[in-house]
From TrEMBL:
Pfam families referenced in this protein's UniProt entry, alphabetically: His_Phos_1 (PF00300)
Keywords assigned: Hydrolase
Residues binding substrate, per UniProt: 12-19, 62
Gene Ontology cellular component annotations, sorted alphabetically: cytosol
Keyword Hydrolase part of the UniProt annotation: yes
Superkingdom field: Bacteria
Protein name according to UniProt: Histidine phosphatase family protein
Span list, region Disordered: 88-109
C-alpha cells in the first residue's frame, strides 16, 4: 500500500465526549462537545485561507459537523471509506484496553482491511484533486502515518489540528507539518 505522492491537509474532527473521556469510539457516531464545536470554529480562519480543490469528509457526524463549522457554507464531499475503524467489542472501552493496531479487535475491523479502504479512498481523492482537505478521524491519521513513516505508532493527533501531509522521494520520509507553521 502506498499513497500517491501529492500533498494534502488532514484535520481530525473536534472533541467528542468519547475522546474527551479517553474512550474508543470508532463506529460510534458521537456528536461534538461544545468544546469540539469551538475548536472547529477556531480553525475557520486558518482553513478558509486555502483554496481547497475538495473538502472530503467522513460520513460520521463528528467529522461532518467539524467541516461545517470550520468552513461554513463550503461544499463538502462525503467519502464513506474515510470513516473511523470499527473497534467491535472495544467500542466505548478505555483507550488503555486498545489492542495493538495490527491486531483485529474482537468483532471489529482488522488493521489491513482498514488500511486498504482508507488508502483507496485517499488515493482516489489524490488522483482527481490537487490540494484536498480531509476531515476525518485519529485512526485515519494513523493510516496516513503508517503510509508516510512506516509506523502507525506515535502521538495522537490533536482535535482540529490541520496538518500538511507532504510527499518525499521515499514514502517513509514524508513530512507532516502543522498548517499554521506553513502559513506563518
Amino acid at each position: 500500500m502506498t499513497l500517491l505522492a501529492k500533498p494534502f491537509v488532514f484535520v481530525r474532527h473536534g472533541e467528542t465526549p468519547l475522546n474527551r473521556d479517553r474512550l474508543m469510539g470508532g463506529r460510534t457516531d458521537a456528536p461534538l462537545t461544545e468544546r469540539g464545536e469551538q475548536q472547529a470554529r477556531d480553525a475557520s480562519a486558518l482553513l478558509m485561507r486555502q483554496p481547497w480543490s475538495v473538502i472530503a469528509v467522513s460520513p460520521q457526524q463528528r467529522a461532518r459537523r467539524t467541516a461545517a463549522l470550520a468552513l461554513p457554507g463550503a461544499p463538502v464531499m462525503v467519502v464513506p471509506d474515510l470513516r473511523e475503524r470499527d473497534w467491535g467489542d472495544l467500542e466505548g472501552r478505555p483507550l488503555s484496553e486498545q489492542t495493538p493496531y495490527e491486531e483485529t479487535p474482537p468483532d471489529g475491523e482488522g488493521w489491513h482491511p482498514f488500511c486498504t479502504r482508507v488508502t483507496d479512498a485517499l488515493n482516489a481523492l489524490l488522483a482527481t484533486h490537487d490540494t484536498p482537505l480531509v476531515v476525518a478521524h485519529s485512526g485515519v491519521f494513523r493510516v496516513v502515518c503508517y503510509l508516510a513513516t512506516g509506523t502507525p505508532y506515535g502521538e495522537r493527533i490533536g482535535n482540529v489540528t490541520p496538518m500538511w501531509i507532504l510527499p518525499a522521494a521515499a514514502p517513509e520520509n514524508w513530512k507532516m507539518i502543522p498548517l499554521e507553521k506553513m502559513n506563518a
